[in-house]
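Budget justification aside, the reviewers requested a transparent look at the raw inputs and outputs of the sequence design task funded under Objective 1. We therefore reproduce one unedited record. The lines immediately below are the structure tokens for a 59-residue chain.
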């Protein structure tokens, strides 16, 4: 929480408002999509799905 306060104090308020709106929406989406996973596991799941979606068949 201390790092967040430092971040908030160091940025322009306009950016802070947009960041928090995006963060809360994204966090709510992740909680609804993966209710049983930890935050780190949610990020890993998104990374894995992104890799699967980017694979292009050759041949």
């Amino acid at each position: 929480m201390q790092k967040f306060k430092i971040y908030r104090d160091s940025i322009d308020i306009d950016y802070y408002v947009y960041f928090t709106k995006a963060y809360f929406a994204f966090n709510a989406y992740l909680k609804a999509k993966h209710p049983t996973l930890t935050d780190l596991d949610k990020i890993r799941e998104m990374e894995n799905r992104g890799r699967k979606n980017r694979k292009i068949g050759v041949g």
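The radius of gyration is 16 Å. Residues 2-54 form one domain. Computational costs for records of this kind are itemized in the attached budget.
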